[in-house]
Amino acid sequence: MEPSLESAETAIVTFLWQGGPKTTSVVAVTPSTLHDFSGSVMQRIEGTDTWYLSREVPKAARFAYRFEVDGPLKPSHEDPQFFRRLSTWLPDPRNSRFFIYQTGDTASVLELSDAPAASWSRANPGVERGTIYEATVPAGALGEEREVWVYRPASYVTTREPYPVLIMTDGRTYLTQLAVNNTLDNLIDAGRIPPLLAVGVRSPERDQDLTCNRSFGIFVAEELLPWVVARENAATHAEAVAISGYSLGGLAAACAALQDPDRIGLVLTQSGSFRRPEPGSEWPRGSGTPDLRK
Q1: Contact 259, 214 (CB under 8 A)
Q2: What span, in angstroms and rounded, lies between the C-alpha atoms of 3 and 14?
Q3: Burial 227-237 (b: 16+ CB within 10 A, else e)
């Protein structure tokens, strides 16, 4: 990547990819590309095997990106097989900054000069740290077991009123790549949120669990939450139970809360993947087409 200044607020970022003699197309896959490929198709430099794309980007930008080589050039809403393509996308071999998704796929990270400081996700001196343990939870609704991790705040005791509960889809990524335990420690220490319990759920097959799959919602509401309550000093009323997630995980969080509002009363969806399939197509492996307006 070779940025040069465009204005005080933006920069020109150039993505580069070295292809081969048989390469026919390259796409720089950024968050906006998922819905519109027209501005992300790279051009070959005549007489070379180098492909490039220059884009104007806010200098406060920080996001993950990958490359799709010789793909169908279709955005998510035009391709029923879109999620199956994700594993074929490639990170930038010339960028040492990377992000590993829960699925094991690797993306490169673009971070410009004015990107917000990540102070909340750092282990800051003087902040008491909560504890984390891992467990395996029976998931009859899914026909298997699920790995989870449980966060207890530093002040955790069993003799006070029950703690609010936060369920996190894509739980492995939140813990290993986003250091959500540090974020919770810091927010609690600063008085921005009350002490709470957090539970991260691992989904080995995201496009199965997180596409508004009713079975996943049943697991969260009717199996995982009772499991937490049986082992922890956890609140049970919906107003004290939240669910969160990003992208497909944000969609799954919204669907689970809409399906079981008596058990889950709060939702945090980060860039939720609320795309709609084309008429006549279905979600790749989930339970069908959700209608979130109901």
Answers
A1: yes
A2: 6
A3: bbbeebebbee
Q: For the CA atoms of the chain, what is the radius of gyration?
A: 21
Alpha carbon distance, N-terminus to C-terminus of the chain? 44
**Residue 231 confidence class, pLDDT cut points 50, 70, 90:** very high
For β-strands 62-69 and 106-111, DSSP reports them as antiparallel
Please list the residues that pair with 66 across neighbouring strands.
Answer: 29
Strand ranges for the chain from DSSP E: 4-5, 10-18, 26-29, 43-44, 50-58, 62-69, 98-100, 106-111, 131-139, 144-152, 165-168, 197-201, 241-246, 266-270
> Would you give the distance in Å from CA 21 to the centre of its chain?
35
Could you read off the pLDDT of 87-114 as tens digits, one per residue? 899 999 999 988 877 667 889 999 998 9
Q: How far apart are CA 272 and CA 74, in angstroms?
A: 20
Task: Quote the tokens at residue 146.
Answer: 């699920």
Measured CA to CA, the distance from residue 59 to residue 12 in angstroms comes to 9
Tell me the β-bridge partners of 58: 10
| Sign of the alpha-carbon torsion through 63, 69, 75, 81 | negative
Amino acid at 79: D
The type of residue at 249 is G
Angle, CA of 33, 246 and 17, to the nearest 5°: 35
Compute the distance between CA of residue 156 and CA of residue 44 in angstroms, rounded to an integer.
58
Strand-strand pairing, 241-246 and 266-270: parallel
Cα-based distances in Å from 170 to 7, 176, 207 = 37, 11, 11
The pTM of the full predicted model, rounded to 2 decimals, is: 0.74
